[in-house]
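Writing this down once: the sequence line spells out the residues, with the fold written below as integer tokens. I am pasting one below:
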Amino acid sequence: MPKAKKPSKAVKTKWQRLKKFFFRISLLGLAFLFVLVIYSDAQIKKQFEGKKWQLPARVYGQPLILAEGKSLTPERLKQELQLLGYRKTVKAVRAGDYENYGDYFYIYARDFKFWDEHAPAREIAFNLGNSKVEDLKDHVNGEPLQYARLDPLLIGQIYPNHQEDRLLVKLNEIPDSLKQALIVTEDQGFYDHYGISLKGIARAVWYNINNDGRSHGGSTITQQLVKNYFLTRERSLWRKFREAIMAMILEVRYEKDEILQAYFNEVFFGQDKNRAIHGVGLASQYYFDKPIDKLTVAQSALLVAVLKGPTSFDPYRNPQNALKRRNLVLKLMLDKGVLTEVEYEEQLQTSLAIVKKPQLNLSKVPAFMDLVKRELKQGYSDEELNSEGLRIFTTLDPVTQRYLETRLSKAMQDVESTRGIEEGTLQSAVIITEATSGKIVAFVGDRKEGYSGFNRALDAKRQIGSVIKPFVVAAALAENDSIQLNQMIIDNKISLPQRDGTNWEPQNYDEKFHGKVTLFEALSKSYNIPMVKLTQQIGVSDVADYIESLGVDKVRALDALPLGVLELSPLELTQLYQVLASGGLQIKPSAIEAVTDSDGGLLERYPIESKRVMSEIHNYLITSNLLNATKSGTSKRLKNKIPWTNFAGKTGTTNDLKDSWFAGFSQEHLGVVWIGRDDNKASNITGSSAALPVFIDIFEGINTQSLKLGYHQDIEWQRIDLDTGNLAGDYCKRTESIPFAYGKAPTQKQDCEEY
């Protein structure tokens, strides 16, 4: 046989070069892989060990508190329950259900963690006989309850830029049925592999090469977490390679349970308008209105089914697809021994059991949310508000807010129609607070419900007109002890020289002079000239200083101050009238009760802060005068329309008829209404023709306690002759009962002739 030919020297050289080439390529590949591993490891550590998710701040309205003897109508309670998404049923069997038979209510209240207590889900029963809470008790054991608090309405959220929302849960809170459903469906070898499935990777590579356009599984739970949490949704071999590397690193660094918990909190379940629903905690609330640990096996299977395709298997839009997929998950649980045949058949017979599609932001309150954010930014950064999952408890009463929004739109149309103004010309802002505490219960910055543009309640500063007059009278009472409400002032022509050399001659709205009038009548009927004269008597600077002492900034000492040339926003005027409504205390209207962290730990309380700025006596005198104004003065339409409730109030009109104001309060609520044009042009409206009718329309439907002046030991009442200011004789025609500081009432009795 001939001898084998030895490779030539040239061939050997080529092989050596090729080996060196592959060796260098291998070294470069290893170096690249090393760098990639180091980089990926650093990325994982940075993101996974720190704050994993940016959590939006949740903003809640005021919770409904049920207490023995509390005033509450059945209609009001039903409105509250409807807003909260409670379901009226024949038999209440789960949290979020309620029964109602006549005046009897049985509510299965939801679990909720407040800033001051954790209120577990509980069954409560009570009657609303005579529109008061009676026989409040625990339905299970029959024990009487001092009070019960329903979960508050979620009125808004402060989102991070990506608009993701989630409720974080711990693995031990997740039912075994949900864990097992996920594993048998998505990754049966989860507890055995090191982050990747070689079969799955090979299949993905093959399909990417063939590019057949179909969706293919094969990724492990760890890979899915990496893809969703660290990477983009790009489909490529490179992304798949990075996914595999990072999955293995994740498995080396962290325990399986940590990975599974992160997966459950990361996964995407669909969209609720602009909000992305992430994590099983929020998905459980969204689909079933229950905490995660209360899910049934079938409900757990449905959540896993939705994960396959949040759009394709959306139980609201595609219920048949969702049901088929859920049943497939249940079948897999049966095949793997997670369920017995009996359990499988039982769960298979259940419906999807999803609640009516929730609107978790039932109350769109952009103006109020704007106020809340401004208050919060005094103590919290944007990052904290957008990402820390703060829970913000506010003072907003959702039922009153919803009613206000609905009534305001119609009331504004009525004003324009009555005054012959083109529809949509006028704008409005309305604020309602608790009279004694200053807590804001309703807040609107636009006539259009849910409008999120210019916030007139906060930012529209306009002349306030005659609503300033009660504080001019209060200044006179404070500055001159001899002045009482029976003081006579001559309402006649007055001319005041100005700095520019001109003379200012104020006019009454009716362009008439009324001769001698008491201060009481001048305020009730809102006469301008007597108020100007009173201010001149006291001193313009002293009146300005007094109003500043009530909490108003930078009041200019102008001759026209008593006619309301002062410019305030509706919120600032609310703060000023809060002094009268609270009995003489300066209380800043507030929107926030408390702030907690995402776990419910208290971060800050917002207590009511007050100081006395008006004496009780002077407050009593002014309030009685404004109470009279709603009966026989410029606001008398209020008593005619709502005769069952006493209000104290004052209209406000600017001289050029640009702005219409009304501020009024009952025992329980203070309301301020502004109406005008955004371009600040004349509208031909007055306080009586625009703001007052809107106030009436709103408060006709608000259950509020009638104003009670009550007895005060330092106050005496006398019937006064309005033509002289003296005690009224038997035959005096124009008389009024007027309060006085004790010992300051007149002693002379007017002898009126009988005729």
In short: The first helix runs from residue 9 to 48. The radius of gyration is 36 Å. Residues 164-348 form a domain with the Penicillin binding protein transpeptidase fold fold (CATH 1.10.3810.10).
